[in-house]
Inverse folding.
């Protein structure tokens, strides 16, 4: 056995396969996606348009990260962003709560349809009944 074989691998130097395994899959990302989606809804209801839009933009980033780490979902994630998230952002930009709420309900249905499409019908997202307790949703003064 050579001297280099006897030495333990430096834990700071991971192989590509090891790095790939460490990347978050959708099971790790989706709870944060759901939390941001929840917060966006209640921020819009409170007419805190900047916070609602920020939550959706951050959610979009997480979904795109999921597309990188789990490329088999890329087409569906991009479809959801294009067909559901972007129209929600446009409604927020216009400060149109009625349109936002209609689009939001459609987006929830679309998300749950993607769960069914990927053979995970037991994942049914729903908007929590209460606003998130960790944020002051009041519009900035």
């Amino acid at each position: 056995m050579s001297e280099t074989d006897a030495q333990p691998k430096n834990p700071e130097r991971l192989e590509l396969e090891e790095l790939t395994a460490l990347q978050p899959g959708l099971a790790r990302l989706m709870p944060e996606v759901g939390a941001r989606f929840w917060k966006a809804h209640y921020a819009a209801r409170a007419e805190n348009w900047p916070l609602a839009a920020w939550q959706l933009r951050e959610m979009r980033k997480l979904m795109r990260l999921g597309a990188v780490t789990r490329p088999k979902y890329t087409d569906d994630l991009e479809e959801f962003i294009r067909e559901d998230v972007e129209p929600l952002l446009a409604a927020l930009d216009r400060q149109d709560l009625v349109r936002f709420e209609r689009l939001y309900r459609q987006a929830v249905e679309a998300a749950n349809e993607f769960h069914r499409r990927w053979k995970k019908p037991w994942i049914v997202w729903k908007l929590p009944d209460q606003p998130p307790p960790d944020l002051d949703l009041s519009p900035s003064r």
Observations:
- The radius of gyration is 19 Å.
- Helices lie at 3-6, 16-22, 26-45, 49-69, 74-93, 97-117.
- The chain is about 65% helix and 0% strand.
- The CA atoms of residues 115 and 121 lie 6 Å apart.
